[in-house]
Specification:
Blueprint lengths: L17 E10 L3 E5 L2 E5 L2 E8 L8 H15 L6 H15 L5 E15 L6 E16 L5 E16 L1 H10 L8 E12 L7 H10 L11 H12 L5 H15 L8 E9 L7 E8 H7 L4
Antiparallel strand pairs: 1-4, 2-3, 4-5, 5-6, 6-7, 7-8, 8-9, 9-10
Helix pairs in contact: 1-2
Amino acid sequence: METLPNIHDEKPDIPIPINKVGFKDVWLPILKTTTNNGELILSPRFTVLVDLNQDRRGIHVSRIYEVVSNVVEEVREKNVKLDDVCREIAKRILSSHQSSSRVYIEVKSPTFYKTTSPITKLTSYEKFDLYVKIEAWKNDLGELEFSKTIGVEVKGLNTCPCAREVVKTVYKPLDTTHMQRVKVKFMIEIPENCQIDFIDILEIVKSSFSSPIYSLLKKIDEAKVIIEALNSPKFIEDILREILKKVIEKWSNLSYNSKIYIEVESEESMHPYNLVASTKIDVGSVKRLLGRS
């Protein structure tokens, strides 16, 4: 067989480095991970990017995919930590891809938590997404360093406090308001020596809604959810701030430099558009604003 040309390793006509290049949204087989609330079944979707220096025309995408596929296949029957899987992928890519000194891995996976209806205690399974982001790079000594970000995305229910007060004022003795589903995406950068469980994050987010949502409710459960949501009306701004406060209270040892990103999107019931609130802030700033520094 003739030797095939290696076009990727040619020098580019325009010698400009590239920060990130790779593949996006590659689904791979099911993995299992353990949390404080038991085992989660994952169907992970990988995005893997590397940097490319100015002397190489392109990356070897097949080699990167092969690394990811091999690592996932090795652990597929085991119970794993998703960030450990990502670290191993990063190590192998940087070892085999000499033209790159940095790798970015993001995994998003749908999974489910088990819940029970508030009165009848019937079981249902509610979907949420979990995230892991790993960035790895070679320091001046050629050693690998890592940063890790984890998070969740989940839906809940919120009720409007403004409409409630207007109804109570104008149409007394009525006490009602409009409600809608709300989606929260929460991401936090955590140091290597800090362990934060996905389920703990999930519980903080769920507890910050006016009410959780349920796939299975009987009539008496529906009434209970409505009353609970009505008695805890919140703007999406309230939800965002409450999550930040609860995170700082639960994990007081977080690095001041750790970044937190939150986005809250309300799927409006009364309007033809959605509302959104988001913030990116470091832990130190939140502590100072709350008088916890």
